Amino acid sequence: MDKMKTIKFLLGMALCFYLAGCISDEVKNFIPGSYVNSAGGEFSVASDTLNISLVEGNNYVVNRRTCFNPIRDGSLGAREFASEQWSCAYDPSTQILTELRKGKVLTFYPKDKVLKVGSRVYQKIK
Question: What is the domain extent for residue 115?
Fold first, then answer.
C-alpha cells in the first residue's frame, strides 16, 4: 500500500509541475504583440502604443510610441510625439516582465487580453 501511495503522490506532483508549466507558457505566449492605452487629464490627452517582441529566451524589447496633445488655457495644443525602447526580462516563476533600466513591471492578463504597467491598462490589439 505504501508503494502505491508513493506512486500516486509522485504522479500528482508531476501533474502539478506540468500544469504550472502550461500556465507559464500561456502568459509567455501571450506577451508578443501590440497594446494600446488612451488617457486624458487636466494638462494633456495622450495615447500609447506598446509593441513587444521576443529577442531570445526570456528577453524582450518593448517599443513605446506616445502621441499627446497638451492642453493650455483650456485649448488643445498641437499633437506631439515621443518614443522610447525598453529592454525587459521575463521571470517565468512570477509571470512578470520587468523593464531593466527603471524597473517598470508589466503584468499580463491573457484571459482579459490586457497588460498593466503600474496602474495603466493596455488592451492587446494584435
Answer: 2-124
Q: At residue 24, what is the residue type?
A: S
Instruction: Tell me the pTM.
Output: 0.76
**67 pairs with which residues across the strands?**
47, 81
Q: What is the pLDDT of residues 101-111, one digit of tens each?
A: 999 999 999 99
List of residues 6+ apart from 81 with CB closer than 8 A: 65, 66, 67
Query: What is the domain count for the chain?
Result: 1
Query: DSSP for the chain?
Result: -HHHHHHHHHHHHHHHHHHHHHHHHHHHHHSSEEEEEEEE-SSEEEEEEEEEEEEETTEEEEEEEEEEEEEETTEE---EEEEEEEEEEEETTTTEEEETTT--EEEEEGGGTEEEETTEEEEE--
Please answer whether residues 16 and 10 qualify as being in contact, where contact means their C-beta atoms are separated by less than 8 angstroms: no
- Cα(34)–Cα(53) distance, integer angstroms: 9
Backbone φ and ψ for 93, nearest 5 degrees, come out as: -75, -30
